[in-house]
Write a structure and sequence with these properties.
Largest sheet: 7 strands, mixed
CATH superfamily of the largest domain: Translation initiation factor eif-2b, domain 2
Structural class: alpha/beta
Strand content: 15-25%
Bound molecules: 5-S-methyl-1-O-phosphono-5-thio-D-ribulose
Strand order of the largest sheet: 6-5-4-7-10-15-16
Radius of gyration: 20 Å
CATH architecture of the largest domain: 3-Layer(aba) Sandwich
Number of helices: 12
Number of strands: 16
Shape: globular
Length: 356
C-alpha cells in the first residue's frame, strides 16, 4: 500500500484534493490556515510537529486529524527506535496520550491512535514497517469509506437543486473525497444537477476558504452564503437537503459538529428539509452515551474578537468561543455511513454497525 495507490483511487473518483502526503519517509500536510490564498505544504518531521499541526489547525476535520495522528505515531516510533529507547511500548503509550490531547471533540483522533497502539503492541519483527502499514491502511480505508458514503448518500439527494452544508466536511477534512461533500460528489456521479450552498462558517471560515476552494478544484457548482442566511435560503425553497459531517456521534445518535450545525438542523426541521449527517463508522462513539457526554472544545476569544488580523470588538471584550455544538438525534433524518444509511432509533442502528 502506498500513496500513489491512494492518489489513483481519488483520481478515479474524480477528487483532485488531498490534504496529506507521505513521501521518502516524510509526512507533509497541506496548510489549511493559509488556503485559498496560498497552497503551501508543511513538512512534519517529528510527532511534536504533528501535534502542533493538529492543535493549530494546519490540518482539521475529524477523519483527517485521525489519519494525521496515525502518522504522528509512525514518526514517534521511528524516533524512539533511532534513539534506542528500551521500553518502546511504554514510550508509545505516552506519545499516544499526548497526541490525543491535541483536540478533544473529534473521536477519530483517539480511535486512530488506539488502533496504531494496538498494531504496534501486536507487531512481531519490523515495528516501524508495521506502524507505517497501519497508518497507510487507516488512510486508504477512510478514502474507501468516503466513496461508499458518497454512493449511498448520493441516492438520497434530490435530482436537482441546492444542498446546504456547514463547515468543511470534504476532501480537506478527510483522507480525500470527503463525507458530506462526498455525498454531493456521489449525487453528481448519479447524474443529479446539484449546487452546494456553503455556510461561510464563522469564525474560522472553513466554508468560505476551504469548501468553496475544494469544490472549485473539482468544478462542482458552489454558492457561498453567510451563516445567518441559511434559514432564509431554506425558507425560500433554495435548499432541497442539508448534508453535514460529524466530529463525534454518541451512541444515541446525538451529533457533535461545527458550531452552528444545531441551528441549521432546527431550521431544516421547521422547513421539512431532510438533514443528513455523513460520517465513517470511526466517528461513531459507542462509549459516549449522549451528546451531553461529548467534550466541546473552546478556542481562544481572539478568533472572534478580531478578523483577518484586525480587532473587531472593543479591547477587553469578554467572548465565548465553543467550536462545536450538539444536534440532538431527533433532528437527524439519517446518518450515512459506509456500512449503510442509519435511521432512528439510532441506539440500535448504531450498535448494529459498531463492532467491539
Ligand atoms: O474545527 P474543525 O475545522 O476541525 O471542524 C471540522 C468539522 O466540524 C467537520 O464538519 C467534521 O470534522 C467532519 S469532517 C469530515
Amino acid at each position: 500500500m502506498d500513496v500513489e495507490h491512494i492518489r489513483s483511487i481519488l483520481h478515479e473518483a474524480g477528487s483532485r484534493v488531498c490534504p496529506m502526503s507521505w513521501a521518502e519517509g516524510r509526512f507533509s500536510l497541506l496548510d489549511q490556515r493559509v488556503l485559498p490564498h496560498e497552497v503551501k505544504w508543511l513538512p512534519c518531521q517529528t510527532m511534536s510537529d504533528v501535534k502542533n499541526a493538529i492543535s493549530s489547525m494546519v490540518v482539521r476535520g475529524a477523519p483527517a486529524i485521525g489519519i494525521t495522528a496515525a502518522f504522528g505515531m509512525v514518526l514517534a516510533l521511528k524516533d524512539g527506535i533511532e534513539r534506542g529507547i528500551g521500553e518502546i511500548h511504554d514510550y508509545m503509550h505516552t506519545v499516544a496520550d499526548s497526541l490525543k490531547s491535541a483536540r478533544p471533540t473529534a473521536v477519530n483522533l483517539a480511535w486512530a491512535v488506539d488502533r496504531m497502539k494496538a498494531a504496534i503492541s501486536r507487531a512481531r519483527g519490523d515495528l516501524f514497517q508495521t506502524a507505517l502499514n497501519e497508518a497507510m491502511a487507516i488512510w486508504e480505508e477512510d478514502v474507501q469509506a468516503n466513496i461508499k458514503i458518497g454512493l449511498l448518500g448520493g441516492e438520497l439527494l434530490p435530482e436537482d437543486g441546492g444542498i446546504l452544508t456547514h463547515c468543511n466536511a470534504g476532501a480537506l477534512a478527510t483522507g480525500g473525497y470527503g463525507t458530506a461533500l462526498g455525498v454531493v460528489r456521489g449525487g453528481i456521479g448519479l447524474g443529479k444537477s446539484l449546487t452546494v450552498f456553503a455556510d461561510e462558517t464563522r469564525p474560522w471560515l472553513q466554508g468560505a476558504r476551504l469548501t468553496v476552494w475544494e469544490l472549485m478544484q473539482d468544478d462542482i457548482p458552489v454558492v457561498l452564503n453567510v451563516d445567518n442566511a441559511s434559514g432564509y435560503l431554506m425558507s425560500n425553497g433554495k435548499i432541497g437537503a442539508v448534508v453535514v459531517g460529524a466530529d463525534r456521534i454518541a451512541a444515541n445518535g446525538d451529533v457533535a459538529n461545527k458550531i452552528g450545525t444545531y441551528n441549521v438542523a432546527v431550521i431544516a426541521r421547521a422547513n421539512a428539509i431532510p438533514f443528513y449527517v455523513a460520517a465513517p463508522v470511526s466517528t461513531l462513539d459507542k462509549h459516549t452515551p449522549s451528546g451531553r457526554d461529548i467534550p466541546i472544545e473552546e478556542r481562544e476569544a481572539a478568533e472572534i474578537t478580531s478578523f483577518a488580523g484586525m480587532e473587531t470588538a472593543p479591547e477587553g471584550t469578554e467572548a465565548i468561543n465553543p467550536v462545536f455544538d450538539i444536534t440532538p438525534w431527533e433532528y437527524v433524518t439519517a446518518i450515512i455511513t459506509e456500512k449503510g444509511v442509519l435511521k432512528p432509533p439510532y441506539d440500535s442502528s448504531i450498535a448494529a454497525v459498531v463492532s467491539e
